[in-house]
User: Fold this.
Amino acid sequence: MPRSYTAREAAQRLGISIDTLRRWDRAGRIRTERDSRNRRIVPGVEVERLRAESRSGGLSARNRFVGTVSHVEVDGLMAQVEIMVTEPTRVVALVTRDAVEELGLKPGMSATALVKSTSVMVEK
Assistant:
């Protein structure tokens, strides 16, 4: 039997709040079911459909840099990921170790850096 998620689990997997998931349900953006206690249950296929949609450009980030992972350095709970986007341009991100493991980031694989910031300052 395919996996289903509670509303809270589905919201966490989608990176949204439980309130957003409820709004999406009311608007018909996500298909939910109800269990015997009338709680929302989200089929796993729905969660995967929305995750795939967000990976294909549904994110609101304005700056997307597709490149190749050139270096991953994990140290404790944090990791540094370097993505070569266009020689010699590179994007370096500090992320959690869990994120690196969940994404399976390894040198040589394709990755997209999503940059969304109100400001970036570098001074010498």
Observations:
- The first helix runs from residue 7 to 14.
